[in-house]
Amino acid sequence: MTPSAAAAASPWWPVALAVDVPAGVAVPASLDGDDVVVWRTAKGELRIFADRCPHRGMRLSFGFVRDETLVCLYHGWRWRADGGCALIPAHPDLAPPPSLCVPSYPAAEADGLIWMAATIPGRPPPAMTGCTPLASLVVDRPAAVIAAAIAAAWGAMDGVCARLAEGDVVLRMAIQPVHAERTMLHVLLAEGDPLVAIGVAEAWRDRFEAAEPVP
């Protein structure tokens, strides 16, 4: 599975569990090699920006949230939730031009997951109704290898989402291709005991890492 292949099924891609991005916090994420910063304003408004300050290229995920703006750690430039520049500290009386902005992406929160899209989507993110966010697990294997392993064990994936069952545990997984050789599995619990489910999810993570490459 690649972003281009799965995009036909869904324009949305998971980038974090909602619980990992509380109000006033910025966290880094990567999708298919592109670095982004996922953040919420102090009021909890969700935003996803390219993880690069237009001024000097510093990662915005190294910065911090102040009120309703994201502040670059390097020179303190502030960015509004709409991506526009709110303040240049070295020139506090200067009104930043509207063209000075950070690239941003559509963001959505649904069923405990944070999703992003490369372009304006025509539909909501995949539904994980009734599920409880459990964990995000790193797998040092390509997303295509993981999708093939899931298909072999449980049948074809639904876009970027999969359903895995083992004993009394039923898991839903949303796959985030981080880069060519790394994938993030966002795991949600549909049925079963959470402590048992964590063990099941980690066991599947180990199986995915041992899976053979796709021919």
What is the strand and helix layout of this fold?
Layout: H1 3-6, E1 12-17, E2 26-31, E3 34-40, E4 46-50, E5 64-66, E6 69-71, E7 78-80, E8 85-87, E9 104-105, E10 107-110, E11 113-117, E12 132-139, H2 143-154, E13 161-166, E14 169-179, E15 182-191, H3 194-210
Antiparallel strand pairs: 1-11, 2-3, 3-4, 4-9, 5-6, 6-7, 7-8, 10-11, 12-15, 13-14, 14-15
Percentage of β-strand residues: 35-45%
Tally of individual domains = 2
CATH domain fold name of the largest domain: Rieske Iron-sulfur Protein
Broad structural category: alpha+beta
CATH class category of the largest domain: Mainly Beta
Protein described:
- With 215 residues, this protein is α+β, with helices and mostly antiparallel strands.
- It has 3 helices and 15 strands.
- The chain has a 4-stranded antiparallel sheet, with no helix packed on it. A 4-stranded antiparallel sheet has the order 5-6-7-8, with no helix packed on it. A 4-stranded antiparallel sheet has the order 12-15-14-13, with helices on one face.
- Strand 14 (169-179) and strand 15 form a beta hairpin.
